[in-house]
Design goal:
By secondary structure, the protein is α/β, with parallel strands linked by helices. It has 21 helices and 19 strands. Strands 4-3-8-7-6-5 form a six-stranded antiparallel beta sheet. A five-stranded parallel beta sheet has the order 10-13-16-9-17, sandwiched between helices. Keywords: Aromatic hydrocarbons catabolism, ATP-binding, Cytoplasm, DNA-binding, Nucleotide-binding, Repressor, Transcription, Transcription regulation.
């Protein structure tokens, strides 16, 4: 191969051979005509499979990549030799010193960065990485000082110099802030191993990017508030506040002042007070159990959704507010509208983006991951190692119907862990009420015939399942009935894509 290059009078600059046996030749660009003759001749040499061109030699590519990496780092970085002389700096150094790199190279590192004896460290018998407080341009920095070792001819590591990386107090503060921030994946806290919950999280992540009101439906203890917070954190309003009001736990008058605030002079107070609706400006207002909201509050909330304005209690002045409303309910809002206890116009204002959180009994594959997460969190608080779940315990937790859902699971595990001795939790450590197989879905006192009650339950079940199985064939397969039978029942109960949000 070298003979061929000599024949063509090609100036060979360098040769490299990689681990795979590829040979890289570095020579100046040659005329295309010469190159056309050169390539076939090299290919005819025994042992050569192919000939290709490459823009860089391996060592050049590696050098360029390392240089690019070094230059893009925002912190000042110095590379020094074994005598402490500067070999290489990045743009953060040249920008800080306001000098070109040529003027910095060759200087003693101790003349630029003070507070650490570099020569003594480089001359030491045992050289290890150091983190030291140093001074650079009259400012304090934390320096990571790392030895650069290369192998000698016998394969022994010898010192070739050192790398010095500086971090300012401001940069360290930024990194600590990021470290303590909530994960960028706002929905990471929502356990979603089951297909049902994966579907909910997918829908929630898409809805979070929008700005319309969200209604989250589900039984008590299913984690509706956690999902609401995740939607807030994933939205453009994440920097704003997330403020909550439980519509079921407060008397009407108290809930109104909490929500809308009051004017000066009201309730004998000389100064007025902003309600949480006003405080949540630019953020998210979370209304828990919106189905229990009074008619008066419903009317005022409707005005906020329509016009973005409201009045404080006892005030005639209007306040404008930009806030996103996220509601939860464990009640059937459609039924409440039919009964006249929930405004129809407010229902249609809210019923735009709807999430239905399935109960824990319908997401069995989430039970054990949730249990392990709770045990880990609770064990850290109690200062102990998280116990393992025995097979009997796993089977028991998965077979239980969890009428109290995720909240009941968390509380049951906390009680068991508090009394546990040892590192394994068995079925006998979990104390729970009798399983929901024995719990009646019918009130002890009900009006009507058995057929009426069965139909009420059947309608409720079909309305709950329809969002997850929105075609008659899917729903029929789930319930083990014929396609025609399900279609007739959906028609009888008025369940379709217009009446049930999917």
């Amino acid at each position: 191969m070298l003979d061929i290059l000599v024949n063509y009078e090609i100036d060979l600059r360098g040769i490299e051979i990689d681990i795979a046996g590829k040979i890289f030749l570095n020579f100046p660009n040659i005329e295309f005509q010469d190159f056309q003759h050169l390539m076939p001749e090299i290919r005819r040499i025994e042992g050569i499979d192919d000939v290709k061109t490459t823009p860089f030699m391996p060592i050049e590519r590696e050098k360029n990549q390392l240089r690019a990496l070094l230059q893009t780092l925002p912190d000042p970085i110095f590379s020094v030799d074994t005598k402490g002389r500067v070999l290489l700096v990045n743009e953060a150094v040249t920008a800080s010193l306001e000098e070109p790199s040529d003027a910095i190279l060759g200087q003693e590192i101790g003349d630029l960065v003070r507070g650490f004896n570099f020569n003594k460290w480089l001359d030491g018998k045992t050289i290890s990485a150091q983190s030291q407080k140093v001074n650079f341009l009259e400012q304090d920095f934390i320096a990571d000082i790392l030895p650069v070792m290369i192998p000698d001819a016998e394969g022994e590591s010898i010192l070739a110099g050192a790398l010095l990386m500086l971090k300012s107090e401001f940069r360290l503060g930024q990194q600590l802030t990021v470290f303590h921030q909530v994960s960028n994946d706002s929905f990471a806290a929502v356990q979603a191993n089951s297909n049902a919950m994966k579907k909910v999280v997918r829908e929630a992540s898409r809805m979070a990017e929008l700005d319309g009101p969200i209604v989250i439906m589900g039984e008590t203890g299913t984690g509706k508030e956690m999902l609401a917070r995740a939607c807030h954190e994933a939205s453009r309003r994440a920097s704003g506040q997330f403020l909550a009001l439980n519509c079921a736990s407060l008397p009407d008058s108290v809930a109104e002042t909490e929500l809308f605030g009051y004017a000066p002079g009201e309730f004998g107070q000389s100064e007025g007070k902003a309600g949480i609706l006003e405080q949540a400006k630019g953020g998210t207002l979370f209304l828990d159990e919106v189905g229990d909201m009074s008619a008066q509050l419903q009317s005022k909330l409707l005005r906020v959704l329509q016009n973005g304005t409201f009045r404080r209690v006892g005030d005639s002045n209007e306040v404008s507010v930009d806030v996103r409303i996220v509601c939860t309910t464990q009640k059937d809002l459609t039924k409440l509208v039919e009964e006249g206890s929930f405004r129809e116009d407010l229902y249609y204002r809210l019923n735009v983006l709807v999430l239905i959180v399935p109960p824990l009994r319908e997401r069995k594959s989430d039970v054990i991951p949730l249990a392990e997460r709770f045990l880990k969190q609770q064990s850290m608080k109690l200062g102990r190692r998280a116990p393992k779940l025995s097979k009997s315990c796993v089977d028991y937790l998965q077979s239980y119907s969890w009428p109290g859902n995720v909240r009941q699971l968390e509380n049951a595990l906390y009680r068991a862990l508090s009394l546990l001795e040892g590192n394994e939790m068995g079925k006998e450590h979990i104390q729970l009420p009798s399983s929901a197989e024995n719990v009646s879905f019918v009130a002890e006192e009900f009006e009507g015939t058995l057929e009426d009650e069965v139909k009420r339950y059947e309608k409720s079940l079909l309305r709950r399942l329809y969002p997850f199985y929105p075609s008659t064939r899917q729903l029929a397969k789930k319930l083990g009935l014929s396609h025609t039978a399900i279609a007739n029942k959906l028609r009888e109960y008025g369940i379709n894509k217009k009446t049930v949000k999917i």
